Amino acid sequence: MPTPVLLEGYDTAWPRHFEKAADELCQLLGLPVSAVEHVGSTAVAGLNAKPLIDIDITLPEGVDITGMAALLESAGYTPRGSRHGDGVFAFVMRGNPGRRVYLCPKGSQTHADRIAFRNALRQNADLSFAYGLLKQELAALYPQDGDRYTQAKGRFIQSVTRAHVTKDVALVPEFAVTDWQISRAFYTWLLGFSIAYERPEEGFSYLTLGSAELMIDQIGIGRTFEIAGAAMERPFGRGLNVQILVEDVDAILQRLAEAGIALYLPLEEKWYRKDGMELGNRQFVVADPDGYLLRLFEDLGARPVGSA
To answer: How far is CA 72 from CA 26, 93, 130, 210, 245, in A?
Structure first.
């Protein structure tokens, strides 16, 4: 039976509704908070959405999904099955807002795609605005047909997901850090990275910023890669600097200045020769809390050698 499409403007209470739901689900299912992710449009600040909190729960290997489903049903969730045959099972709970919970097997590509799409919208305001406009147009076109509305969004979602999904990244550095929470705050609050997922029990975060991806892992928790006889002393990463493409170096510079963090290399315009062309960077270098050097830059494009 077709369902109506009822979009609402962004509600600042949605993140709090998710946090409440996540706490309840973790207690019900006996899972850590890191297993529960806020996905869908209500997870993107400023984006219009149906008043329905979408939640992905990643189950550890070996967990009986039937038992988890029974627990959800006992708590008032209605099963909706696995519509796409991908091993992801949906459950809904009516309310204001409602909840839609997905049980995802470990390594689920459906879950990875949802996280990639969510992160892309969070990191790019223009992309989020375009998606919001598309949803408004489709809601007007299919006001009483939720299935047609969802299908019509598919091309946009797939194009964004293909550009951002983690599986397409061939190289992701992992930094050993002395304090996982301090490093995470530096990368998220000051540099603008988002948290794709975490393993708090290991002091581990997987971070994304646009198409850049980075892992941080606390020394002494879980497994740490060390070279025998080489002391782990600051500054870490000697001889290495990591280049990161960003949209707005000035906004990052302002946050660093307000936090009282000095730059290793001040803002500069630098051109690098590539064959008969020069590639331009507007860039600066800052050290993270453990001394890893990060070169953040805006792309200035290309020009013929000698044209300046």
So the answer is: 11, 10, 35, 35, 42
CA-to-CA distance for 185 and 289, rounded, in angstroms?
A: 10
Strand pairing report for 98-105 and 78-81 = unpaired
pTM above 0.85, yes or no: no
Chain centroid to CA 135: 21
- What is the average pLDDT across 39-60? 94
- Hey, what domains does the chain have and what are their CATH numbers? 14-167 (3.30.460.10), 169-304 (3.10.180.10)
Sign of CA dihedral 102, 108, 112, 113: negative
**DSSP code of residue 189:** I
111-114 LR contacts (CB < 8 Å, sep 24+):
111/37, 111/56, 111/58, 112/165, 112/166, 112/167, 113/161, 113/165, 114/37, 114/39, 114/40, 114/56
The rounded distance, in Å, linking the Cα atoms of 47 and 129 is: 7
* Token code pair at residue 25: 């689900």
Residue range 104-149, pLDDT digits in tens: 988 888 898 899 899 989 988 888 999 999 999 999 998 888 888 8
Amino acid occupying residue 294 = L
| Contact predicate 82/4, CB 8 Å | no
